[in-house]
Design a protein that fits this description.
This protein is mainly α. The protein has 10 helices and no strands.
Length: 286
């Protein structure tokens, strides 16, 4: 019959505790701004803020399935000792996430006012939340790119560094978010959120990569991620010049224009990834 094995529980307990602790810290970090701003903003403004955060958070909803699909494969490769293959999968997956996250982040940040108006039809909301949405979505875009370092640690079965990083992030972020919310409102919180995510991306990612993927961080950043950011930025700026969206643009016109900009930006970004470029070329030839 089935019997409870305490020794097995003791083996997995540190890892399970790390996962649980990290999840609790993540909830605290992502919800503290709402908790504080609920006492600072009016009810209408808090409703606006909730919509802003919902749109910005869509970046993670878009990229999370890719990360969750890749993690079991990375874990399997690590368990077989196939580290080179695991690193290649990590880098290719990072590129695919960047192809999705970077163009959409830039588009939402640049067209934040138009997007809010097209979605809700509320001009007052669009004016109030445009800048806040731009800052928040850029923060979430960086978070999507940074999230893979957690999956790398997870594949190794070692989350100690992630626990340390999450704790530092919470200790630093919560007081800063509180100060920004009390003194500068929702937009101040958005700027703070972006600044923290930028520092985390530039400072913490190299530390994690140095431990789990030694010598690969600069190659990951400058060969895998940065070209996509540059190509996406240029393509969106060109489309912004070719397809301008003025103040008088209607909701349908905005949606159609944003669809065109998104198609061009995503396609151009995909060409920065060798595998995707080959796939697109093969489809065109057919």
């Amino acid at each position: 019959g089935l019997r409870f094995n305490m020794s097995s529980m003791q083996t997995i307990m540190p890892f399970a505790s790390s996962v649980a602790y990290s999840a609790a810290i993540w909830i605290l970090i992502t919800q503290v701004d709402k908790l504080i701003l609920s006492s600072v903003l009016t009810l209408a403004e808090f409703g606006y803020f909730s919509i802003v955060v919902l749109i910005a958070g869509a970046i993670l909803a878009l990229t999370a399935p890719i990360m969750q699909a890749v993690l079991p494969r990375m874990t399997a490769l690590f368990s077989k000792g196939e580290l080179i293959e695991m690193y290649l999968l990590y880098r290719k997956s990072s590129q695919i996430v960047a192809v999705l996250a970077v163009p959409i982040t830039i588009i939402i940040a640049l067209y934040s006012k138009q997007i809010l108006f097209a979605w809700t039809g509320e001009q007052e909301l669009a004016i109030w939340g445009a800048q806040t949405l731009s800052w928040f979505v850029m923060g979430y875009g960086l978070l999507a790119l940074s999230a893979f370092q957690y999956y790398l640690q997870n594949a190794f079965g070692d989350l100690r560094l992630h626990v340390i990083g999450s704790t530092i992030s919470a200790i630093v972020q919560i007081p800063l978010i509180y100060y920004a919310a009390i003194n500068f409102g929702a937009e101040g919180v958005g700027i703070t959120w972006f600044a923290i995510r930028l520092v985390w991306f530039l400072w913490w990612m190299p530390i994690v990569h140095h431990k789990f993927m030694p010598g690969e961080h600069l190659s990951w950043l400058f060969r895998d991620i940065l070209p996509i950011i540059i190509i996406a930025s240029i393509s969106v700026l060109i489309m912004n010049y070719l397809v301008p969206l003025g103040e008088a643009s209607g909701r349908i016109q905005i949606l159609l224009s944003l669809a065109a900009v998104s198609f061009v930006a995503l396609s151009a970004s995909a060409l920065a990834v060798t595998e995707l470029k080959s796939l697109i070329t093969a489809k065109i030839k057919k």
